[in-house]
Amino acid sequence: MASPPTGTVTFLFTDIEGSTKLWEHNAPAMQAALAHHDEILKGAIEEHAGYIFKTVGDAFCAAFSTARDALEAALESQRRLFSCEWEETGPLRVRMALHTGAAEERDSDYFGPPLNRVARLLSATYGGQVLLSLTTQELVRDRLPADVELWDLGEHRLKDLGRPEHVFQLAASGLTADFPPLRTLDVHPNNLPVQPTPLVGREREIGEVAELVRSEEVRLITLTGPGGTGKTRLALQAAADLLEEFTDGVYLVALATITEPELVASTITRALGVKESREQSLMESLKNYLRDKRLLLVLDNFEQVLEGAPLVGELLGVCPKLKVLATSRIPLRLYGEQEYLVPPLSLPDPRVMLPLEALTQYEAVKLFVERARAAKAEFEVTNENAPAVAEICARLDGLPLAIELAVARLKALTPQKMLDRLSDPLKFLTKGARDLPERQRTLRATMEWSHALLEGGEKVLFARLSVFAGGCTLEAIEAVCDAENDLPVEALDGVESLVDKSLLREEGVGREPRFVMLETVHQYAREKLEESGAAEELRRLHAQYFLSQLEGEAGTFRGGGRPEWFQLLEVEQDNFRAALSWSLESDQVEYGLLLAAALQPFWARKGHYDEGRRWLEAVLAKQGRASVVARAKAQNAIGWLAQWQGDVERASSAAEEGLLLCKRAGIEARVANQLRLLVGFTAEMRAEDYKRANELFRESLELSRKAGDEWTTAASLLHLGDVEDEQGNNERAVELYEEGIALCRKLGYPVLLADILVNLGYTRLLQGDYEQTTALCKEAIALYREQGYRYARFEFPVDNLGWAAWLRGDEEKAEALYQESLMLCRELGNKLVAAESLQGLACVAGKRGEIERSARLFGAADSLFRARSISHLPAERALREPYLEAAQTPSNRAAWEEGSKLTFEEAIEYALSGNQSFPSALATLEQPSTRE
Questions:
Q1: How far is CA 709 from the centre of its chain?
Q2: How confident is the model at residue 140 (pLDDT cuts 50, 70, 90)?
Q3: 253 near 299, Cβ under 8 Å?
Q4: Distance of alpha carbon 133 from its chain centroid, rounded?
């Protein structure tokens, strides 16, 4: 079998004309005939060094290194097909087309404009006919077999609406020579304009629009979407694909240049060539002309003459074969209208670095590359510029117009430099082609065109909506944008109108819809808000609203919160970030402290420890008026986040400072008790003062029981159990853990329950009950999952499971679990659990005789422990012997020192090196079979 050719390739596309009818008439006979057809084509193609890269139904797609091989394969295929006895089906008439060009080959498939061109050429062909493009003809014309000719069929406009193609027909002995006129634009009545550039992507949308037009029930389809999204280009291509289905033609009516609704009728008549007469009104003449015609009207840019829409309904009412495909930023609002919202081009996630082959599959990137090469022939997407290209496309929302305007700057800027200037796309994207309509020469002009369509009250709402980040609900819009009851339009009516006018997009999240602006639209709306003078007040109202949303649910945090509520918090992340940014910029310290503190459970649940700590550190560093309670809450929040990352020093300092604030102010609220727990926990972690830790936990237990605070009661039992465990009093620890577990099960605190199960599991591990450790930790993982945790907290039970597997003698399972734990720790920044898992892998390496590797891993772990003043209990150290002892011999001192000098990230990378293909142990853990 031939290899996929690269570089300049000649493509042969084929399919069977009328195959659907043949299948319907006699399916068994067609099945046998198709098998014979496939054998003929496959044989002829492979005999001439062709590579078949795709077959779809009865269609073949093949690639050849030379045009001559492709021509001879097509010729031989047709001759064999013509000479066959087809019996029941009758002769199979196969269409064929050849075109040559430079295409991109990936994973045995091909991509690029030549593929689209040969497909369009094939669509113009008849069964038994072979067509060649001019490019292919020039490559084979001087080397034709003796009995072969290439007949010049002249230039034809293919249905891709690009430049005309000079087409040639293969003529040879044994082949049919006479065919009807080619199925190109030229042979069907139409006025569809030639497009200066090929359409990139949109295959799915073209197919969906065409199917809507074909539907008997649908007479009017309106393509809607914001300016620059490519509505016109999509409509034109769908219309071109439908030409054969409208015997009386497909006609474009451009409405962008008129503003008077009364001119719609005359503009349509001019496009159709309808003559006015003295006997009839213009409308009557138009109706009479269209009454019996099967015709498709493409009405482009209807948004500025919407008052003329009833005319369209009138025409459809009296012309039963007429169909209308309209483009508009606003629906026409006619009975029976089918709206089709044109989406932006498909986009990669700029936060995920994809291989170049995958990146260039996205439509927005494809468009960027195609237009970039037109502007700068040597342009290529490389590993260096790929992140910038992906980020540019994402910032421009995948809008074709915005991407084309950006690419115009490539002659002077690299993608990396362009990205630096895209902070204000409205100022940057100002270099549209001179032959574009004025509204499309700059991105700002496109936005102003849309803004001019709004009523006064809608303009006010449009500007105010820019205060939201990442979208919002109708409830939020009413609360923030009309807080003073001064919005000149009903919020619901205004939102509906902005959606209709393509300046808002409705997206469903759960049961409640959200309303989102594309970023380019958002930028323009922000400018309008600044111009209004109300920006600062709107930001204050925005921050106040989102803080109230958190405070209203504060009671749920004791039990870990409802998973579905945390999912909604995740949806609103950008709004919370915007509110925090405002609090910092405007010195509203109280807002910032309370908001950041209230978000701590969310950050902890989702594993966003670093982000949470950054916000909290920033607001704590601000000087300004703020209550002692707000500062204490923020210290408590940052302390617990630091603790979950194993940063005992920062957790300790935050806890001590917060508790001191509470004592000075005489506060004995829940926050003081949680700080008391945190102070005790950090003291215990460093084994510096078990006595103090024990006193603090007991005080917390007494106060929480007295106050009826059951969550803190259970948490105090957890930490008291930890102190007992650290001091070797395992049985007393188990009693306290089990009391806390019973309380959590009774009152429904699933996250705290999981935390206690993990710690009880570790105690059972030290007692030698590895099966119980495994059962407890698996149940904890199940609880975390049920509560919406994605990976935060998992590192603790996974590390425990690793040690349980190791001590049971399951070396491979232990290794996989330690590695899983390290990946989680790298994601979360948890250095303490990472140190435990590094030691586990050191034991595995020691057992395998890899003593130097074992010493390096022990050294790296020891460095992480020493940085936090943490030492092992005798029972813990016993788990690591004799491998720890072997790693500490003088002969391994150098390897140990090397390990101790590794950074956290370097240590994990070293531990995982050579082990990147292992399966996820966490993903395969069984759910616990019993639950109380």
A1: 42
A2: very high
A3: yes
A4: 39
